[in-house]
Amino acid sequence: MPPYRRIILKLSGEALAGEKGYGIDVDVIEDLGNQISYLRNSGVQIGIVIGGGNVLRGAQGEELGIDRATADYMGMLATVINALALQNVLMKKDLDARVMSSLSLVQIAEPYILSKAIAHFEKGRVVIFAGGTGLPFFTTDTTAALRAIELKAEAIFKATKVDAIYSEDPNKNKNATKYATITYTEFLSKNLKAIDSTAVSLCRDFKMPLILFSMKEEKYLIKAVLEGKFGTTIKED
Q1: What is the dotted CATH code of the domain comprising 6-235?
Q2: In the predicted model, what is the mean pLDDT of the chain?
Q3: How far apart are CA 59 and CA 75, in angstroms?
Q4: How far, in Å, CA of 107 to CA of 143, rounded?
Q5: pLDDT tens digits for 212-223?
Q6: Which 3 state secondary structure label does DSSP give 18?
Q7: Distances 136 to 2, 50, 177 between C-alpha atoms, Å
Q8: How far apart are CA 209 and CA 233, in angstroms?
Q9: Do 73 and 55 form a contact (C-beta atoms < 8 A)?
C-alpha cells in the first residue's frame, strides 16, 4: 500500500520551464507525466494545482503598468495553459485527467465543484486544478492549501526549483540552516519565503502537512511521495 491515499501536488510554473526559464520544457513535462502515471498506478489519488509563472506572474504585470487585480487574472489564465498541457501529456499515457477551473472557461475546463472533484478521484482520474482561487491577490500555494483541505487530502507536496527550506537564502549565505522538518509556527515566525504564508497558516489550522522538494532530483516525485527521503516537511511539533 502507498503511504498516502490522496495528495495534492503543487507545481510552480517556473518548474515546468526547466533550464529555459520560460514556457514549457518538453522533457520536464514528459518526465513529470511519467512519474504521475507511476504514482497513480501505485494507488495514489492525485490532485494537481499548477502555477503560471513560466508564462506570467501578477507582479510582472504590475511592472508593465497593469493594475494588480488584472495582472493576477492574467496569471490565472496562464495556469490554464499549463494545466491543458499537462492534461494532454497524461492522457497520452492512458491516464484519465480532468482540468477543473476556478474561472469560468467551459469550452476547455470543467468548473471547480467539490463533489465532482471527489467523484473524479474515486473513479481513478487525475484532477488538475487551474485558475488559482479565482480571485486576485491569492497565490496558487493558497489554492493548494484550500483544495487539500476541501478534498481531505493527506498532504501537500510542493515541487520547486529549490531542494529544501533554509533559514536564509543559501545562495547568499553558505552557512544557512537547511531544515528537514519545521513547524508551521516556526516557519511563520521566521518569515520564511519558500511557501506563501497564507497557505501555511491554513495548513496549520487544519493540520495539513506540507512537503517541499526539488524537481532537479531524479525521480523526485516518486521519491518524495513514496519514500519521503528528501526536502523539508512543515508540520506540527
Answers
A1: 3.40.1160.10
A2: 91
A3: 9
A4: 22
A5: 998 887 888 999
A6: helix
A7: 36, 16, 34
A8: 7
A9: no
